[in-house]
Amino acid sequence: MTATLLWGKEAAAEIRAQVKERFDRIAARGIQPGLAIVTVGETPAGNPYVRSKSRAAEELGVRARVERFPGTTTEDALHAKLRELSADRGVHGIILQLPLPSHLPEDRHLEDIAPIKDVDGLHPLNVGRWVHGLPGHRPATPLGVLELLRRHCGDLTGKRVVIIGRSRIVGRPLSVFLSERSPGLNATVTLCHSATRDLKSVAREAEILVVAIGRRRAITSEYVRPGAVVVDVGIHEIPEPPPGGPRFEGDVDMASVRSVASAVTPVPGGVGPMTVAFLVRNLADAVEAQEGAR
Ligand SMILES: NC(=O)c1ccc[n+]([C@@H]2O[C@H](COP(=O)([O-])OP(=O)(O)OC[C@H]3O[C@@H](n4cnc5c(N)ncnc54)[C@H](OP(=O)(O)O)[C@@H]3O)[C@@H](O)[C@H]2O)c1
After folding, report:
1. Does residue 40 carry a pLDDT above 60?
2. Which of 6, 16, 102, 190 is most buried, judging by how many CB atoms fall within 10 Å of its CB?
3. pLDDT the model gives residue 58
4. Sheet holding 34-40, edge to edge
């Protein structure tokens, strides 16, 4: 078997076109939306996620700014900046790029972001809303994975899904969304992590296997049930000299898994574009919530 590649580019372009219409209506009212991305302790070359989010926002007429802090920054300095951005009427969306250096408490700083501007859906108030199935900001990557699965698999009711990785931004929210009691969802979800025993045999139970562990090419065909659909969330940038580089790979060993799975998302071009599409959709929601939708 050679698995089909599940590209996200087409679906992402459709979503971005719908979002663009909303931003055009906002611009016609004389409003220029603002997005602030706060990073701590970045490399001088910058972060590819931050670049693609800023670019996507700017293409929609959004004023995107990146607030960079050194890795040695203090809790008070970060707190002050996030509170300042939360109060700034020209900033409609705030992203705090995770993970933070270990001396900074992520939970506290996520609470520093005004919930209405929390386009990553990680403020406890927004987390509470999505856990209860209520409307509000939800993390973009799991929304993107869900949309890809809906388009490829259709109704997910009763499907056996295994997610490897329980991060607050990918695995955990995805497990909640997939198991929601809603038409088309209602999947049976197993959430795995570094303490899961016999991961290979648990993963092999999956009709749909989602991998978000942050370890390059860690998942081989031994983890995959024949015919399964595999979603690779991981992204690893591999430096290569120009003109070719850099290259990107996922958490899945594509050559190995493609011989067993029925479909696999490629890296790049699979989940990544979907994340960006849902992020700008979340930003449109945030702008309309603050400025009124018309
Ligand atoms: N495509 C996109 O748009 C997108 C968006 C976000 C992230 N990513 C990428 O996705 C990957 C994961 O990111 P993340 O932020 O979710 O990662 P993370 O916060 O580092 O969490 C990794 C998770 O994987 C688990 N894990 C690590 N090694 C494992 C192993 N050997 N067996 C089983 N579980 C293991 C960890 O378990 P413990 O909880 O027990 O430590 C943790 O739950 C990264 O490559 C990241 O760059 C891509």
Report:
1. yes
2. 6
3. 97
4. 63-69, 34-40, 93-96
Q: Residue 168 phi/psi, 5° resolution? A: -70, -15
- Contact status, residue 186 vs residue 157, Cβ threshold 8 Å: yes
Alpha carbons 210 and 161: distance in angstroms, whole number: 8
**How far away, in angstroms, is 247 Cα from ligand 1 center?**
19
- Indicate the top mutation candidate among 100, 175, 233, 248 to test ligand 1's pocket, ranked by most ligand atoms within 8 A of CB: 233
Query: Is residue 38 a contact partner of residue 49, using CB atoms and an 8 Å limit?
Result: no
Question: Is 15 annotated as ligand-binding?
Answer: no
What pLDDT is attached to residue 221? 98
Q: Is 53 a catalytic residue?
A: yes
All domains of the chain in start order, with CATH: 30-114 (3.40.50.10860), 138-272 (3.40.50.720)
Residue 195 C-alpha to ligand 1 middle, in angstroms? 13
More confident residue, 109 or 243: 109
Annotated ligand binding at 166? The verdict is yes
4 Cα–ligand 1 center, Å: 24
The amino acid occupying position 102 is S
pLDDT for the residue 46:
61
Confirm whether residue 235 is marked as ligand binding. Answer: yes
Indicate whether 47 pLDDT > 90.
Answer: no
